[in-house]
């Protein structure tokens, strides 16, 4: 399958200091589209020792009651078996999520958002920047097809066009430095020509690595020296057109990449040792990071420029720090932190935020880490992972996706008679994990306590579910069998696939392409 480069990297400020937010060292995380398994219906129990903490967070959440308005969510579509767009839109509305950010102009998603009233930020992938930068006609065609048509024909509330996604990441080695601004200009001109210049604003979602602080404090913030001129060019253009600065901030990545990062500083409980910046205390990384951007804008003459936090969140699996307890603690703490419009020391007032992300995506690259497929506040089947009060409804719980259709309750597991010393075991597991999803297997992950046979069964079942439970997808030679007995062990659930959604011919072809590859492999290798 061709690799999808639409949104394949994310970085976050990382530090060699104890506070971990201002160092010039950053860690890039790639997001690529590869075939991975969707496992619906996972449920992970919370350890008894964490229940007191969760109870306290619930109490705080109840106190919010509608104090947060206009919360947004990132809706990614890199999934092998996505929920029908209409199901996702209904879920958005029932959870009071009033804004959604898309990473491309997915037709099905945009059509489903019609007449919903949900505000939409539609994205342009980085691999399109060159063509849009070099051709005004290309920009006009893109706006006509992906913005004008949906606004006039389907009544989609498109308010923003995101031109590229983190195009100035250091790991891109300048690939998009000279195409981002011309593409931005052309899209803006095309919007004006289409009569949408006042309704739809352009923006460029940027990673927090575009700014830094030589002093290690927020007040030392400025744009990175190697891209300073490019940044000022873009910021000036956005400011002149009444458009916002969009930034993605990820405390989890700093914790993941730096063993010395102070854990408490990633959260909002006020337990961390504060940073004192000229008399202003910072008790969490988010406030310090965002205010570094505010200082950078102020120093360059854009003190009042509006800011959107385009992505912020916490994954739930695939790493020892990616778990339900930390994710619930972070997201609920963040919602409580921004409730009431307090803002940050340098930017008081409501914060415009899009949570990352809405639903897990099983086809994202695991290059940066196994956690990449587990950022959602909902599992892949649209079921909530944990209790979370967004402050947008009268409920302290997330509303699940409705009428989700699952496949039959059957699993592919290792035969009891199969031996671990069989020479086909290693090859079979390697193949299954390459085309399915074994990201829940590993040290201190949700399935990290399985024995060898449990790991093998998990891999086989992931592959089996990915391929819609076809009998021939459980034909690992003399190793596998189909069972109707749930092999779940402790906190590790062996998932059941949701039924395939066929949104168009492209998806049908994709599904059969996987099946054809399965058959060929089993015939030629085994």
TrEMBL record:
Ranges where the X8 domain occurs: 410-494
Superkingdom: Eukaryota
Transmembrane segments: 52-75
Top EC category: hydrolase
Record's keyword annotation contains Transit peptide: no
BP GO annotations: carbohydrate metabolic process; defense response
Gene Ontology molecular function terms on file: glucan endo-1,3-beta-D-glucosidase activity
Reaction(s) catalysed by this chain's protein: Hydrolysis of (1->3)-beta-D-glucosidic linkages in (1->3)-beta-D-glucans
Membrane topology type: Lipid-anchor; GPI-anchor
Pfam family name, one: Glyco_hydro_17
Annotated protein name in UniProt: glucan endo-1,3-beta-D-glucosidase
Family, similarity comment: Belongs to the glycosyl hydrolase 17 family.
């Amino acid at each position: 399958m061709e690799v999808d480069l639409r949104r394949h990297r994310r970085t976050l400020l990382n530090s060699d200091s104890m506070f971990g937010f201002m160092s010039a060292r950053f860690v890039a995380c790639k997001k690529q589209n590869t075939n991975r398994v969707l496992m619906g219906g996972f449920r992970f129990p919370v350890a008894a020792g964490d229940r007191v903490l969760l109870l306290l967070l619930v109490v705080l959440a109840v106190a919010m009651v509608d104090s947060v308005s206009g919360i947004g969510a990132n809706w990614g579509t890199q999934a092998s078996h996505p929920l029908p767009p209409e199901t996702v839109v209904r879920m958005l509305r029932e959870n009071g999520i009033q804004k959604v950010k898309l990473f491309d102009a997915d037709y099905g998603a945009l059509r489903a958002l019609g007449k919903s009233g949900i505000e939409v930020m539609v994205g342009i992938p980085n691999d399109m920047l060159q063509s849009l930068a070099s051709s005004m006609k290309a920009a006009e065609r893109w706006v006509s097809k992906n913005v004008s048509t949906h606004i006039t024909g389907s009544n989609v509330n498109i308010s923003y066009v995101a031109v590229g996604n983190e195009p100035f990441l250091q790991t891109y080695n300048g690939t998009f430095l000279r195409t981002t601004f011309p593409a931005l200009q052309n899209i803006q001109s095309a919007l004006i020509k289409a009569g949408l210049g006042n309704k739809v604003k352009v923006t460029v979602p940027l990673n927090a690595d575009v700014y830094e602080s030589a002093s290690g404090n927020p007040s030392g913030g400025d744009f990175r020296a190697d891209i300073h001129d490019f940044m000022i060019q873009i910021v000036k253009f956005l400011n002149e057109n009444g458009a916002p600065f969009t930034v993605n901030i990820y405390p989890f990545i700093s914790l993941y990449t730096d063993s010395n990062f102070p854990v408490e500083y990633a959260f909002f409980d006020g337990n961390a040792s504060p940073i004192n910046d000229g008399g202003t205390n910072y008790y969490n990384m988010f406030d310090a990071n965002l205010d570094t951007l505010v200082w950078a804008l102020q120093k360059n003459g854009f003190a009042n420029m509006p800011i959107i936090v385009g992505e912020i969140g916490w994954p739930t699996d695939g790493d020892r720090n990616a778990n339900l307890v930390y994710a619930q603690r972070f997201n609920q703490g963040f919602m409580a932190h921004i409730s009431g419009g307090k803002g940050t020391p340098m930017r008081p007032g409501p914060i415009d935020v899009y949570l990352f992300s809405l639903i897990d995506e099983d086809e994202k690259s695991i290059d940066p880490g196994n956690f990449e497929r587990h950022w959602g506040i909902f599992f892949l089947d649209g079921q909530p992972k944990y209790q979370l009060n967004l402050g947008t409804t009268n409920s302290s719980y997330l509303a699940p996706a409705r009428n989700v259709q699952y496949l039959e309750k059957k699993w592919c597991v290792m035969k009891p008679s199969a031996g671990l010393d069989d020479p086909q075991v290693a090859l079979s597991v390697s193949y299954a994990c390459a085309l399915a999803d074994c990201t829940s297997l590993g040290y201190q992950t949700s399935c990290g306590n399985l024995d060898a046979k449990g790991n093998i069964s998990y891999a086989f079942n992931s592959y089996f579910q990915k391929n819609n439970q076809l009998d021939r997808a459980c034909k690992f030679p003399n190793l596998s069998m189909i069972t109707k007995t749930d092999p779940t062990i402790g906190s590790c659930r062996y998932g059941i696939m949701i039924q395939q959604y066929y949104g168009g011919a492209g998806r049908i072809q994709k599904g059969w392409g996987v099946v054809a590859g399965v058959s060929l492999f089993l015939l030629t290798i085994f």
